[in-house]
Design brief:
single chain; mainly alpha
Length: about 170
């Protein structure tokens, strides 16, 4: 076998551990002996030898202890890493620890009165006359509709010469 295909010592570790656990549990491979005849020493045909209960209990207790040790080690590492993380951070500044109070909501004190004032202002704009800053004038909407009602809204037809009239 070349060095590249040969398994390393770490890859054999699970197999060695499993073989050790089987040996400790008292497991024995089946022997090539003929079947025992049911005789006076074994009237019901059961096995001559049972599994060693003491060894099996030790294996189970060892597995439980190793699981408990692993859980304890993980808990200890989490505690230590958390403490190291807290110890490595800077303390908070007074601005970071100050309690922030949001401003109160801006609610209307009298919403119906505000709505009535708004409607009166808009109604005055639609029904009254007023000069505009660019020199034009605003007229009531009813008057504007009467003025436009008698006129065509189509563009002015071109004059006979082909140039639109102004």
């Amino acid at each position: 076998m070349s060095d590249q295909t040969r398994p390393g010592p770490l890859s054999l570790l699970p197999a060695i551990a499993a073989a050790g656990l089987l040996r400790l549990s008292g497991f024995r491979p089946a022997s090539r002996q003929p079947e025992p005849d049911p005789g006076p020493h074994n009237p019901e045909g059961f096995e001559e030898e049972d599994v060693d209960v003491r060894r099996t209990a030790f294996v189970v207790a060892g597995l439980a202890a190793s699981v408990a040790a692993a859980i304890g080690a993980v808990g200890l590492m989490m505690h230590l890493f958390g403490a190291w993380n807290v110890a490595g951070t800077l303390p908070l500044t007074p601005q970071q620890t100050a309690r922030v109070q949001p401003p109160p909501p801006n609610l209307q004190g009298a919403p119906y009165e505000d709505l009535a004032r708004y409607e009166a202002r808009e109604s005055a704009r639609l029904t009254g006359y007023a000069p505009l800053p660019d020199g034009r004038a605003r007229i009531p909407i009813d008057r504007a509709m009467r003025l436009v009602a008698g006129q065509s809204l189509d563009p002015v037809p071109p004059a006979a010469g082909g140039v639109p009239a102004r």
